[in-house]
Amino acid sequence: MSLKGKSAVVTGSTSGIGQAIAEAFAAAGCNVMLNGFGDKTAIARLREGMANKNGVRVEYHAADMSRPAEIADLVAKSQAAFGGVDILVNNAGIQFTAPVEKFPAEKWDAIIAINLSATFHAVHAALPQMKARKWGRIINVASTHGLVASAHKVAYVAAKHGIVGLTKVVGIECADTGVTCNAICPGWVLTPLVQAQIEARAKAGGIAVETASRALLAEKQPQLQFTKPEQIAALALFLASDAASNMQGAQLVSDGGWTAQ
Ligand code: NAD
Fold it and tell me: What CA–CA distance (Å, rounded) separates 116 from 108?
């Protein structure tokens, strides 16, 4: 499919799922604004590689998604650079696990800010222009944890359920505007975010990382395979396409059977 002539902002696209989505969009001919933390040289290499390989413009904005003013600047600079933002992918996210009574308040605040409030601020900034241009795609990376819960993830599960709710409201409000807003709910995807959880589990149980990885899958994901970043990117591409123009406020699940149980 072609996104030639379109421009996208993908938050948290210096790693994992966001990077895969940015790569898929660039390969479809879309200009991309990258965002996220990381080594400056590595980010420059990523940006140049993506642009040269696909003959599109790829820029980078270092907005910290916990800071509303920086999010507004990310959207404004992207609109200025590309002449408009057609697609907004709200993907940046972090994780922290602990029982609720031991969950540090500052971790709660950070997860709610980055995994939930950042999406509100980005939509708030990008939507007026999308509505004025009568076309737009808002794609929110939620999680199976937007639909069901796991122990020790109080902030993450609350934020992701919030994303699913936000997606429904924005979908309804945009119903007849040419703009759609939908969410993707991945199961376990082997990215640095999940690798850290596997390593913590291996350490706590005194078991090999490989064993901890298999146990993590066995506990939740009947397919016993990690969801691939490219599979989530393919869903994002679909949501950006005209084929998905009738989808509004929906959740697309790709989780190897996790939430079917
Ligand atoms: P990741 O750690 O590989 O990537 C996270 C990205 O977000 C990185 O680019 C990082 O720099 C960026 N980021 C973190 N804090 C930021 C901040 N304050 N400001 C700007 N950028 C920031 O993780 P991932 O697994 O690719 O996760 C991406 C999204 O997918 C998250 O929203 C996550 O909750 C969601 N998700 C992941 C999984 C999974 O199993 N990996 C499953 C479901 C949903």
Answer: 11
Same domain, 99 and 73: yes
pLDDT score at 230: 97
**Which residue range forms the structural domain that includes residue 109?**
7-187+228-253
Query: What is the distance in A from the centroid of ligand 1 to the CA of 132?
Result: 30
Element holding 198 (H helix, E strand):
helix 192-205
Q: Which residue from 9, 10, 17, 166 has its CB within 8 A of the most atoms of ligand 1, so it is best to mutate?
A: 17
One domain for residues 91 and 46: yes
pLDDT digits (tens, 9 = 90+) for 28-62: 999 999 999 999 999 999 999 999 999 999 999 99
Q: Are residues 98 and 193 in the same domain?
A: no
Q: Specify whether 76 is located in the same domain as 130.
A: yes
Query: Which amino acids are annotated catalytic?
Result: 156
- For Cα atoms 158, 167, 234, give the angle at the middle one, nearest 5 degrees: 100
Ligand 1 near 171 CB (within 6 A): no
Alpha carbon distance 232, 209 (integer Å): 25
Spell out, as residue ranges, where the chain has pLDDT lower than 50.
none
- pLDDT in the model for residue 1: 80
